[in-house]
Each structure stands twice: as C-alpha cells, then as structure tokens.
Amino acid sequence: MRIFLCDDSHSFGAVVGFWLEEADDLELVGIAYDRSEALAALRDIRADVVLLDTMAAGDEDLSVDLVRELAPGAKVVVYSGHEPHAAQQFVAGEPDLYLRKGDEPEHLIDALRELSGSG
Question: In the chain, how many domains are there?
C-alpha cells in the first residue's frame, strides 16, 4: 500500500517513515511539510492512503473532500495529536479514519492494513 504523509513536523515525518519501512506491505511514497506542498503533490503522487496531519499553518484551505478530489481513490486518514472535534478546525470533513498520534506505532500500521483490507 502506497502512503503519502502530510505533516508539518520534519522529525515526525522521519519517524513515520521509519515505521513504514519496517512494514513490508506499506510504502511511504512522499511527504509534504505544509499545505501548499501537499496540495501540489496530491494529484501526481498516486497514493492509496493520504495520512493527513492538521497542519495548522498556512492560508490554503485543507479539507478531506479536497484531498479526495486531488487524490481520487485514496483513503484519507486524519492523523493528529488533536482530539477529532479540535482537528476539524483545521481539516474539515469526514475522513475514512481518525488516528491519534499518541498511539503506539503498531496501532497505526494495523489500522492502515485494516483500512486497505489486508489486515
């Protein structure tokens, strides 16, 4: 499964990349560190899953529906340190899945597998 990560933390992006490298069936195909970079890359990245942090900084609108429009067929997972109701201040819409960053790495990997039907 091809994963595209949108997160404004370079260090967290590196950590998630490491976690995904450990899983033979998951591949990190790109990282965007701000909203404009994410919006520009989504059309071409051909991801199966967009792992989307709230990325509060930036003037561009960021919504689950817009991500789906730019990455047709991709599942959208909001992956945030915010509670779901607070995350909606930054990313509007209903994702396919909401995951908390404070959970164990195995929870992320298992949830991604279940989302794709291979878990």
Answer: 1
- The packing angle between helices 105-116 and 10-21, to 10°, is 60
Backbone CA torsion sign across 83, 3, 66, 6: positive
Q: Are strands 97-100 and 75-80 parallel, antiparallel or unpaired?
A: parallel
Say what the pTM is.
0.87
Cβ atoms within 10 A of the Cβ of 105, count? 14
**For the chain (length 119 residues), average pLDDT per consecutive 10?**
92 90 92 89 92 72 86 90 61 83 89 80
In a domain, 98, yes or no: no
39: CATH: 3.40.50.2300
